[in-house]
Amino acid sequence: VQLVESGGGMVQPGGSLRLSCAASAFTFSNYAMTWVLQAPGKGPEWVSSINAVGRITSYADSVKGRFTISRDDAKNTLYLQMSRLKPEDTALYYCTRGWGMGPRWGQGTQVTVSS
Predict the structure, then answer these.
(1) Cα–Cα distance measured from residue 18 to residue 26, given in angstroms and rounded to the nearest whole number
(2) What span, in angstroms and rounded, lies between the C-alpha atoms of 70 and 81?
(3) CB neighbours of 66 closer than 8 A, spacing ≥ 6?
(4) Based on the number of CB atoms within 10 Å of its own CB, is 99 exposed (0-12), middle (13-18) or buried (19 or more)?
(5) Segment 54-89, tens digit of pLDDT
(6) Is 27 exposed, middle or buried (0-12, 13-18, 19+ CB in 10 A)?
(7) pLDDT at residue 54 in the model
(8) In 10 A of CB 51, how many CB atoms?
(9) Each residue of 3-37: pLDDT tens digit?
(10) β-bridge pairing 2-6 and 57-59
(11) What is the DSSP secondary-structure string of 55-85?
């Protein structure tokens, strides 16, 4: 399994970012995928999952209505569109294979929300 996250950065509160997760070394379209965050000094926290055909999604209450998970199986890529960002969204975000929490395969991408 190879997963490479990108798209993080520093943004002001209320701003937007789109994270990407490029997958390889497995048949991406066969698997549900998940985004997880890890804030400084805290354990990993589930953000959102999408099923294998992309028709079922689920979100943590903290991001519901602000984040949108999607996937492009032709590009073997998972996305997380983040809007109305808050300082408490600051964390390392990573993608993992499967529905729900899972191991961090890549280096993740840092999102910092600060004025």
Answers:
(1) 23
(2) 8
(3) 82, 83, 84, 85
(4) middle
(5) 789 999 999 999 999 999 999 999 999 999 999 999
(6) exposed
(7) 75
(8) 14
(9) 999 999 999 999 999 999 999 999 999 999 999 99
(10) unpaired
(11) --EEE-TTTTTTEEEEEETTTTEEEEEE-S-
